[in-house]
Amino acid sequence: MALTNSWLSGPAPTKKLDHVRLSERILNLLSSQNMCVIATTGPDGPLATPVRYYHLDFALIFTASGRSPKMRNLAADPRISIGIFAPLVGQASSRGAQVFGRASLLAPDDEEFGRYWEAYRWQSDHVERGNSLDEPPLGPMVVVRPQRIVYTEHWLRRDGYAPRQFWRPSGEGVED
Questions:
Q1: Spatial separation of the C-alpha atoms in residues 112 and 163, rounded to whole Å
Q2: pLDDT range class, residue 5, cuts 50, 70, 90
Q3: Of 100, 91, 89, residue with least CA distance to 152
Q4: How many CB atoms lie within 10 A of CB 34?
Q5: Rounded Cα gap, residues 114 and 106, in angstroms
Q6: pLDDT tens track for 43-63
Q7: Percent of the chain at pLDDT above 70?
Q8: 99 phi and psi, to 5 degrees?
Q9: Residue 117: CB partners within 8 Å, gap ≥ 6?
Q10: Less packed terminus of the chain by CB within 10 Å, N or C?
Q11: Which of the four pLDDT bands, split at 50, 70 and 90, describes residue 88?
């Protein structure tokens, strides 16, 4: 059988990308996708929920009804894990990120709300639902500023880099 991507065979390289190049690849992933799965913990255990997100730099932003289980969970325990991935065709195209951080629940009267609200594209939802663009939604917004990201991209192996890379805002590497 023909080996389509011979660079996938054998042991994976261990070389790390520098912080600038890794940051660029992560931002590319965040910009090219719009769905993620958030994982929260509540009284009934873990809850994984698909949500549409937007981002401002590395901060992920989403909204939800304040009465939803995920929002109740985050109000009680702001720790959150988020999975984002590009559609997979084969191992060579495997690309995604695990984001770890703490969720901030922002209301319209919070000081930081306006900064993140500008990045949230609510208008398309309103048009789809037949709502007026003159009346933006006023519900809570969730902002997650990553404390660390585990980024996976098997294509990196082609250039001698480890397919799993570890990012922190400060640029310090982290091993998991």
A1: 35
A2: confident
A3: 91
A4: 13
A5: 10
A6: 999 999 999 999 999 999 999
A7: 96
A8: -105, 130
A9: 108, 141
A10: N
A11: confident
pLDDT tens-digit series, residues 93-152: 899 999 999 999 999 999 999 999 989 988 888 888 898 888 887 778 999 999 999 999
3-state secondary structure the chain: CCCCCHHHCCCCCCECCCHHHHHHHHHHHHHHCCEEEEEEEECCEEEEEEEECEEECCEEEEECCCCCHHHHHHHHCCEEEEEEECCCCCHHHCEEEEEEEEEEEECCCCCCHHHHHCCCCCHHHHHHHCCCCCCCCCCCEEEEEEEEEEEEEHHHHHHCECCEEEECCCCCCCCC
For the residues 23-38, what does the mean pLDDT come to?
97
Tokens read off for 22 = 């890794």
